[in-house]
Specification:
Immunoglobulin-like, 3-stranded antiparallel sheet, 1 helix, 11% helix
């Protein structure tokens, strides 16, 4: 059987067409593969608390007892963190936790005062657990501030030179 010239000419063209179609479409052996792997993401949040205080301004002392208060603000990174706050004796030389003193321009006799935590007549606020630290618990929400009131009293009948008196108290927080 002899193929006609037209059929013989068409056969190579058909074979080329089939090959061309095969080259355009993706071969069955060239599939893509995806693999997966897990990795951990971690962080550690440590509890940290800070304490800041507002100025305790007594105003003018005329010989009569003067009372004033200020606020300590506690901010903790973790909710419901128990803490204790202590107040030192101040920066005036010779002052103690039970006899704090403001001084006039760094010299002269001091103007005595007390710091307490519950009321103006409460216990002296100290700087160790044994000397009346004030305890509390931070807010139930982290980074929300909690406050403690500091009550100050200048006792009556102190004989001191006229002038502007001041002191610096350091508040410490243990948590």
């Amino acid at each position: 059987m002899k193929f006609s010239f037209a059929l013989r000419s068409a056969l190579p063209a058909a074979a080329l067409g089939i090959l061309a179609l095969g080259l355009v479409s993706a071969p069955a052996f060239a599939t893509t593969t995806t693999t997966s792997n897990n990795f951990s993401v971690t962080a550690t949040v440590q509890t940290a608390c800070t304490v800041t205080g507002s100025t305790l301004a007594f105003g003018t002392y005329t010989g009569a007892a003067v009372q004033a208060s200020s606020t300590l603000t506690v901010t903790c990174t973790s909710a419901s963190t128990p803490y204790n706050i202590g107040l030192n004796a101040g920066a005036t030389s010779g002052a103690t936790l039970t006899s704090r003193q403001m001084q006039i321009s760094g010299a002269g006799a001091g103007l005595g005062y007390t710091l307490t935590s519950v009321s103006y007549t409460g216990l002296n606020w100290g700087n160790t657990l044994a000397t009346n630290w004030v305890g509390g618990t931070s807010s139930a929400t982290a980074q929300t501030q909690t406050t403690q009131t500091v009550y100050g009293t200048i006792p009556a009948n102190q004989l001191v030179a006229p002038g502007s008196y001041s002191d610096t108290i350091t508040a410490s927080i243990t948590y």
